[in-house]
Design a protein that fits this description.
Blueprint lengths: L19 E7 L2 E2 L3 E3 L11 H5 L2 E3 L2 E5 L5 E4 L1 H14 L7 H14 L12 E10 L12 E10 L10 E5 L16 H16 L4 E5 L7 E4 L3 E5 L5 E4 L8 H13 L4 E4 L11 E6 L3 E10 L2 E4 L9 H14 L10 E3 L2
Parallel strand pairs: 9-10, 9-16, 13-14
Antiparallel strand pairs: 1-2, 1-3, 1-8, 4-7, 5-6, 5-7, 6-18, 7-8, 10-11, 12-13, 12-15, 15-16, 16-17
The structure holds pyridoxal-5'-phosphate.
Length: about 350
């Protein structure tokens, strides 16, 4: 593949990389797998993933550091979370060693696609696992495929992190005791309709409430929500149906242990949101996307941080976490996995 890529003008789009990693599970046993050059494959018309959506996925990034190394951020947590997701969907979990082996092999084979330091671009890695054998009676599939693909993606924010306007959704993302806490593909299928509606109305994202009482903040379609109080402490909504974001869990450690901030992980009601000074959506793609306003059925909740820039506390969190990810700041033990 020609590597004369215009890194700073990349979007967040699929492009086939030179290589992908593929492994198969039969009779509950995962094989070693290996690299493939083919972005297309044959699948049976009755495969479990196609009939009953038996699939889950992960998302992480490989970065080039200032001194030229290639690193990934806490991939062991992606491996663990994919195992948890798989178990909940009756998919045999991919062993962590296989996940890590695939990651090293994949990124190494596609080294030329890891954007240079300072470009703001990264190599996005998408691991996923799905039922690949035919199923017609409702049951788990007998065979599974694990794939890990990657593509270079541009900076999430071009020309600075501009705050977005989001809305409180009338739809629910995840039922109590449902699959909200795992990265199931089906959670995304169900959020597409609500997401498109929000976009048509001019909002960047939906914020979902807890479906049982519709009074508490859950999260956005693909990002957790965090708040900063007027006296500068971090407030993180807590609920079993919120997806355990690795970015959010890392920000909690950065805030508490590195920046010495007070961190409160607890239920957060919609009623108390106007009291907060800053709000952000957090996930691998953006790290932190600042929220300037939340629209709640015509009522506007405008944060004092405004619509021009990310607020001071979130900026500090953002700079510290991205500094760690890019190798500019010392990382807590075990956070950086170098691809060798
Ligand atoms: C993946 C995901 C996130 C973000 O998780 P990270 O590990 O930080 O990328 C947040 N919410 C949902 C629903 C997700 O699927």
């Amino acid at each position: 593949m020609a590597k004369n890529i215009d890194w700073s003008n990349l979007g967040f789009e699929y492009t086939p990389a030179d290589y992908r990693y593929v492994a198969t599970c039969k009779d509950g046993k995962w094989d070693e797998g290996g690299l493939s050059e083919d972005p297309n494959f044959m699948i049976n018309e009755c495969a479990g993933v196609l009939q009953y959506a038996q699939a889950c996925f992960e998302g992480l990034k490989a970065y080039r550091t200032e001194d030229g190394r290639i690193v990934t951020f806490r991939p062991d947590l992606n491996a663990k979370r994919m195992s948890d997701s798989a178990a909940r969907l009756e998919i045999p979990p991919v062993p962590e060693e296989l996940f890590m082996k695939a990651l090293d092999a994949l990124v190494n084979a596609n080294k030329d696609l890891v954007p240079p330091y300072g470009s703001g671009a990264t190599l996005y890695v998408r691991p996923y696992v799905y039922g690949s054998s035919p199923v017609i009676g409702v049951a788990p599939a007998e065979e599974y495929t694990f794939r890990m693909i990657c593509m270079p993606v541009g900076p999430y924010f071009k020309g600075g992190a501009k705050p977005v306007v989001v809305k409180i959704s009338d739809y629910d993302r995840a039922a109590p005791h449902g699959t909200g806490g795992i990265k199931a593909a089906l959670n995304y299928a169900m959020s597409l309709y609500a997401g498109m509606k929000a976009h048509e109305e001019g909002f960047a994202e939906n914020i979902y409430l807890d479906p049982a009482t519709r009074t508490k903040i859950e999260e956005a379609g693909g990002m957790n929500v965090i708040f900063v109080t007027k006296d500068g402490s971090l407030v993180v909504p807590k609920s079993p149906s919120i997806l355990p974001s690795i970015t959010r869990r890392s920000l909690v450690v950065v805030a508490r242990d590195i920046l010495g901030m007070k961190v409160d992980e607890r239920e957060v009601t919609l009623a108390e949101v106007p009291e907060f000074a800053e709000c952000g959506l957090v996930g691998t793609a953006a790290v932190i996307c600042p929220v300037g306003k939340i629209s709640d059925h015509g009522r506007e909740i405008a944060f004092p941080s405004g619509m021009e820039t990310m607020g001071p506390v979130l900026s500090k969190l953002y700079d510290t976490l991205t500094g760690i990810q890019m190798g500019r700041l010392e990382a807590p033990e075990g956070w950086i996995h170098e691809i060798k």
